[in-house]
Amino acid sequence: MWTASVLLCSLLFSISADATESPYVQSDSDPMQALNIFFRTTYAHARRDVLEHSSPIIVATGNRLILIDQGQRTVGTVVDRAYHDLKTVAHTPIAVYCALARETDGPLEEEVTERLKRFIPLIDGALDVFEGGVYDAEDTPRQQAVLKGCRQFVNEVLRAGRVSRSELIRFIRQNVGHAQENLDRATAYRIDNYHAQATAWRAELGPEKWAALRVVIPGSSMARRHSLTTQYFAKLLGEPGESDRIVYAESLFDEQKALERLGTHLFDMQIGEDFFSDRWRMHRDALGASAAHYLDALSMD
Question: What per-residue confidence (pLDDT) applies to 291?
Fold first, then answer.
């Protein structure tokens, strides 16, 4: 029974995974190729059908939320500009570090010198934004302090034509506190924006539709752990994190591809439940159990 289950699961791997090249290439006339194409095509049709009958869906793209319900696509309110501006200022000391991290304890290369010279007017432009009175008294002084500190440090490095590693590390660590304050404020802006939009849609959808809601979150691999968006929707929907209702579409920033990932997630849960009585079986490497079993008996001597 175990062997049959493993073999069946090996055949039913998700087609969303990247195929690896093999020295064995099937020809178009190969009956095994024809059978495999039929499987993949049938899977894709079934996945699309599952997705079409899975509304409502929220796609959390980062800058905005998108609601898809019964074929209707509604774009929510764009995240406040302050979110992006505060993050940009928090990144500015890191930009200084990136420019100089490989240049410490020796004369600056000409390319680095030219890059730093182009950096100064960019900082000046950002300072103009915060001197225009568009931000409140709590945020503005902190942004000005960070930007002016970066400008001063870069000018000192340009005058000296070099920087030591200890000087660079000291500069970076002096900015950690301000950067974290900015990230805290930016987080509040984004979550408040999400919450205002999501609660408005919850009222429009009603309890029955809201209980069926799925969320797909396109995002980078590095941001997956402790994702702000995942944490927010987990609390909103009463989920532990990524789950059958919340799907993180890693490195899929195209909306349609992210939705296809959600369709794969939903259909694979159905396959797992119907074939193996384990809705998460298809979310693990199809060969994983076989590998563990085989490796137990494999000598590495």
Answer: 76
- Calpha distance 130→150 (Å, rounded): 15
Residue 218: per-residue pLDDT: 86
pLDDT at 269 over 80: no
Residues 168, 96: Cα–Cα separation, whole Å: 9
Picking from 85, 185, 182, 190, the residue whose alpha carbon sits closest to that of residue 129 is 85
Q: Is residue 273 pLDDT above 60, yes or no? A: yes
In 3-state terms, what secondary structure has residue 226?
Answer: coil
Query: Which range in 100-104, 144-148, 277-281 is most confidently predicted, on average pLDDT?
Result: 144-148
Answer whether 99's CB lies under 8 Å from 119's CB: yes
Model pTM?
Answer: 0.70
Instruction: With beta carbons less than 8 A apart as the criterion, state whether 189 and 80 touch.
Output: yes
pLDDT of residue 160 exceeding 80? yes
Q: In a 3-state reduction of DSSP, which class is residue 75?
A: strand
End-to-end CA distance of the chain: 31
Strand pairing partners for 191?
none
Rounded to whole angstroms, the Cα distance separating 130 from 87 reads 14
Determine which helix (DSSP H) or strand (DSSP E) holds 59, and give its type and residue range: strand 57-60
Q: What is the dihedral of CA 111, 113, 115, 117, to 10 degrees?
A: -150
Both tokens of 154, joined, read 């870069």
